[in-house]
Amino acid sequence: NNILDASNFSADDLIALIRAVKFAHPEMSMRGVYNEISGTMANSDQSYVFLKEVHLNDVKKVWKKALKGFSESIENNVPNKNEVKPQSVTSTPVESVPVPADGILRFYTVGDGSVKTLVENYANHQAGVKIAA
Questions:
Q1: How far apart are the C-alpha atoms of 73 and 27, rounded to whole Å?
Q2: How many alpha carbons lie under 13 Å from residue 66 in its C-beta half-sphere?
Q3: What does pTM read for this prediction?
Q4: Is the alpha carbon torsion for 19, 90, 120, 79 positive or negative?
Q5: Coil, strand, or helix at residue 110?
Q6: Nearest-5° Cα angle at 42, 7 to 50
Q7: Is the dihedral of CA 93, 96, 97, 99 positive or negative?
Q8: Alpha-carbon dihedral sign for residues 111, 55, 20, 8
Q9: pLDDT one-digit tens code per residue, 50-102
Q10: Distance from C-alpha of 34 to C-alpha of 41, rounded to nearest angstrom
Q11: Within 10 Å of residue 84's Cβ, how many Cβ atoms?
Q12: Is 107 helix (H, G, I), strand (E, B) or coil?
């Protein structure tokens, strides 16, 4: 059963999860990101138990797309020891957002939480951990 073929979870959802984990842990490997999604995130709340169904091959399929342009923006926003660069906000142009053939964008929720909410909560939690440290 391929999670990317499931009707309640898309490749874009997985890409968002990968980017959230890589933002919090830039040094993390593909397998580490997979373990974070299918283990830590899946066990964080009953409504995210479906993430246990994510397979390493699913992560491999979208890995390059998830990190395309992502690592450069992280590196550009990390100050050098000798040089401080102003922070810039990167965003995805509306033209590059994939639109289904029928022209209707769909948002999926599972239980009482959506993947988007999980990504936001994960990023906020990781930011809080780094600030507290």
A1: 15
A2: 24
A3: 0.59
A4: positive
A5: strand
A6: 25
A7: positive
A8: negative
A9: 889 999 999 999 999 999 877 555 555 544 444 444 445 555 555 555 666 76
A10: 10
A11: 8
A12: coil
